Amino acid sequence: MKLKPLYALMLPAVLLSSCSKDFIDRPSLSGTTTGNYYNNADEVRAATSTLYSGLPWRNYESRAQDAIGDVMGGNMFTYTDVEYLNFTVSSASDRIGAAWGAFYKIIGYSNVMIKTFEEKKAAGGGAAYLDPAIAECHFIRGMLYFYIARTWGAAPIITDPGATALSGDFNIPRYLQKDVLRFALEELKMAETGLPDSDVPGRVTKSAARALMAKMYLYSKDYANAKAKAEEVINSGKYRLVDDYTGMFTKMSMNNNAEAIFSIQHQFAQDPWGTGNIKNPDRGAGALRTAEADAWEMYVPSLDMLKEYEFGDLRRKWSVMEHGWTNLNWKPQRANAPKYNAFMASGFKYDTLQPTADGGSLSPTRGNLVKYFAGPGKSFGGEPVLGQNSGNNVVLLRYADVLLIYAEAVLAGGASTADAKALDALNQVRRRAGLTAKTSITNDDILHERRVEFAFEGDYWYDIQRQGFAKAKAIIEKQNRGTVTGATYLTNFTEDKMFLPIPAGEIVQDPELGKDPVPYYN
């Protein structure tokens, strides 16, 4: 959604309302006013539930997250988003337009809710339920500006789109990246103050705000504060690593589990589009396409990513399918396909020798993705799937990240560390993966651990980016971005590729976005 239409959408004093108590229901766009609505916690929480729903996040999490975080990061190969594979992204790219629109749309929702709830409180509304809701909005706004600052660098900051629309002045400049990051951090500090210590699974809390602050401090190389915030989360005891790593991304029963800190909330439904998780077909092996589940393997693991796993790392089979990978519970069948049906009758075997028409798999890298692929459908031994839709959440922040943030913050840019607490944090992650413990760690050790732990979760590009241009260039140029038929190494990575271009349509509407950034703070 473009900025100007977004302002117009945000003009009403009240954006969202609903009588539904379901956490992830989408509140309706109604004409209620602060005088007759938001009179209790249920009404307020029904509105803020929209900020977690897959509906407004859809255009980011569906493909833009993959293209930016993992294709650009060198973790995924694709024939579709080639411009992200070879760093020739233009301002006309669909993916950056989709991500930009999703982020500013949700920011717009947050802006209007903050204003509405503050007006309601000023008119005598209950602070006990309005203040936590305002804090939720600050958390979401802070999170999104963090994403924006990492994706585009300098960018607009919008807090009152209604006032902007009424003024008629849509010439919003780009603000310096350091100011966008500062604004995001201030939002999270307000969230930390106003959020409760605990809430129902899926809702953000003080610990969630601290975890995201730790990640933001680490990005900015403020190691002391990154360590302090991560340590607060660790000491809170509110999160833990779960045993079923694959299930975090593929099972509805594990939505909002003990490791998940912030997740986009999905329902198992097709309508409205985006209610369900629609990553399934883009990641699923074509051999698992059935009458229930679409699978067209748009994104596959890169050869460079497959080479990154240490021998014995269980995350390899938990994250990717390769020759010999099996799931004997999956028994997909197809109409009028006797050879396929016979091959699958005893359970799914990922086989690169079997003809593809008869159940074999032959991706360009001879691998497919496990993360966020729920399977061939419930009738065939998998999770419930409705065509392109499954019901599992998309996890944007989890406890493993906090542990690795802590370890890196202790290292603090040094050559190595043998600090006992840092080692314990990193080795908890390695221990789950079946790996031996480290006795000292370097920055490269942590980057490796982050890459394999969060592969295909849309984060690795940002880990590369925060290393600075020289190291980012060295990392990118060492990656094999080709296929089994031919290696491809890039030589065109230049400093201007560290951030994505502002979508062309936005600059047409607001020419200030095409100019040099300016300070947001005096």
Give a written overview of the molecule.
With 522 residues, the protein is mainly alpha-helical. It has helices spanning 3-9, 41-48, 54-61, 64-71, 82-85, 94-122, 127-152, 161-167, 177-194, 206-219, 223-236, 247-250, 280-283, 303-308, 315-319, 338-344, 399-411, 420-432, 443-453, 460-465, 469-478, 504-509, and strands spanning 76-78, 260-264, 299-301, 320-321, 326-327, 348-349, 368-369, 394-398. It has a domain at 3-195 and 504-514: Serine Threonine Protein Phosphatase 5, Tetratricopeptide repeat, CATH 1.25.40. It is built from 22 helices and eight strands. A two-stranded antiparallel ribbon has the order 1-3. A two-stranded antiparallel sheet has the order 2-8. The chain is globular and about 70 Å long. The two termini are 30 Å apart. Keywords: Cell outer membrane, Membrane, Signal. Residues 83-218 form the SusD-like N-terminal domain. It is found in: Cell outer membrane. One of its GO terms (cellular component) is cell outer membrane.
Task: Provide tags for this entry.
522 residues; mainly alpha; two-stranded antiparallel ribbon; 22 helices; 5% strand; globular
Offer a quick outline of the entry.
Pfam families: SusD-like_3 (PF14322), SusD_RagB (PF07980). The protein is mainly α. It is built from 22 helices and eight strands.
